[in-house]
């Protein structure tokens, strides 16, 4: 009896998924357009045949992920998106209204963006075109409401696009800002004799004590926190403006987390020596995420709402009492 129960339990999830897929309306149009879109970008998705000699957009993305640690997280984003769509699968199924030709316009815009990127050899444009086309395919096959409900997961796919050298335009201002805030707090509020020289933290003797490197500037915590905030907002709130507020707070929270971390490094280094400060810098990177996630959850608590289903309530039908009909 135990083995039969275990066998039934092991098959329950695949059977449920199979039954759910069978009940999905307009799945043929969705599957055909999605497959054609993916095959097209696999065959003609990349025109830059230099360092990564492949015509596939997905091969180019894999090469970028393997070449840069800062971009390697991009390979996991599709799994998160699939998980979010699975989380909301019943609501998404209920939102399907049938084919919407406005989705075809969005699909065409995605194709146009890809063609521009293909001609000027900017594969990032092609990646964005691929994502925009996926968004349009949802609307084309399942309707405008369905497409709108997938907006946040589709936006997450933007994190699949590698930044590479473009990240410096973001990391450098963040490095300077975090250094200014940390040195200002340590010097003026805590009385520690440190000064700033660019992104370097200098002692009163003019010696370079610490350097807020690109890895410590907050770009990784920013990207990670934005992704987490999108997951948190999508699964916890039904209101679009509340989801937007949660995502928008990711940037200041990432700055706040790195501000606390670098300030802690300065204070510990002043109290116990530079080696102790370097130990905090190298071993206590979780401070950034702890502060940022704490702030994110606090904001979520302020915006908390009663969980409500998007489906309309079923109208109760009154059944007349049984008995003989009146004459």
Number of strands: 3
Distance between the termini: 58 Å
- Continuous helix count: 15
Total of domains: 2
Low-pLDDT residue spans: 307-320
Radius of gyration: 26 Å
Q: Main sheet: which strands, in order across?
A: 1-2-3
Shape: globular
Report the helical percentage: 55-70%
How do the SSEs run, as a string of H and E?
HHHHHHHHHHEEEHHHHH
Largest sheet: 3 strands, antiparallel
Helix/sheet category: mainly alpha
Mean pLDDT: 82
Strand proportion, as a percent range, falls in: under 5%
Question: Can you describe what's shown?
Answer:
This protein is mainly alpha-helical. It has two domains: 22-162, no CATH class; 167-302, no CATH class. Helices cover 67% and strands 4% of the residues. The chain has 15 helices and three strands. A three-stranded antiparallel sheet has the order 1-2-3, with helices on one face. A hairpin with a 4-residue loop joins strand 2 (200-203) and strand 3 (208-211). The model is unreliable at 307-320 (pLDDT under 50).
Can you give me a brief rundown of this structure?
The protein is mainly alpha-helical and 327 residues long. Helices cover 67% and strands 4% of the residues.
Set out the fold topology.
Layout: H1 2-22, H2 27-44, H3 57-67, H4 77-87, H5 89-95, H6 102-120, H7 123-142, H8 144-149, H9 151-156, H10 168-189, E1 194-197, E2 200-203, E3 208-211, H11 219-236, H12 240-248, H13 250-272, H14 274-283, H15 286-302
Antiparallel strand pairs: 1-2, 2-3
């Amino acid at each position: 009896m135990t083995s039969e129960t275990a066998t039934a339990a092991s098959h329950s999830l695949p059977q449920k998924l199979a039954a759910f897929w069978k009940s999905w309306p307009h799945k043929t149009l969705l599957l055909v357009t999605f497959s054609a879109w993916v095959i097209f970008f696999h065959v003609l998705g990349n025109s830059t045949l230099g360092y990564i000699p492949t015509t596939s957009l997905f091969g180019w993305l894999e090469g970028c992920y393997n070449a840069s640690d800062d971009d390697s997280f991009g390979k996991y984003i599709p799994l998160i998106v699939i998980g979010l769509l699975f989380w909301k699968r019943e609501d998404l199924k209920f939102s399907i209204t049938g084919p919407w030709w406005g989705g075809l316009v969005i699909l065409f815009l995605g194709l146009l963006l890809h063609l521009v990127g293909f001609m000027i050899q900017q594969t990032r444009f092609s990646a964005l075109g691929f994502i925009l086309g996926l968004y349009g395919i949802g609307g084309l096959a399942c309707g405008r409401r369905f497409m709108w409900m997938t907006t946040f997961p589709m936006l997450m796919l933007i994190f699949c696009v590698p930044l590479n050298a473009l990240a410096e335009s973001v990391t450098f201002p963040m490095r300077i800002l975090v250094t200014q805030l940390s040195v200002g707090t340590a010097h003026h509020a805590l009385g520690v004799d440190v000064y700033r020289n660019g992104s370097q933290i200098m002692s009163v003797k003019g010696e370079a004590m610490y350097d807020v490197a690109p890895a410590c500037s907050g770009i990784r915590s920013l990207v990670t926190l934005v992704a987490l905030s999108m997951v948190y907002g999508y699964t916890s709130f039904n209101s679009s403006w509340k989801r937007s507020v949660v995502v928008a707070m990711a940037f200041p929270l990432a700055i706040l987390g790195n501000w606390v971390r670098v300030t802690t490094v300065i204070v510990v280094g002043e109290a116990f020596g530079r080696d102790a400060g370097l130990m905090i810098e190298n071993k206590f990177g979780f401070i950034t995420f702890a502060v940022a996630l704490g702030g994110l959850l606090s904001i979520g608590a302020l915006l908390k709402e009663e969980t409500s289903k998007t489906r309309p309530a079923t109208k109760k039908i009154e059944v007349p009492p049984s008995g003989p009909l009146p004459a």
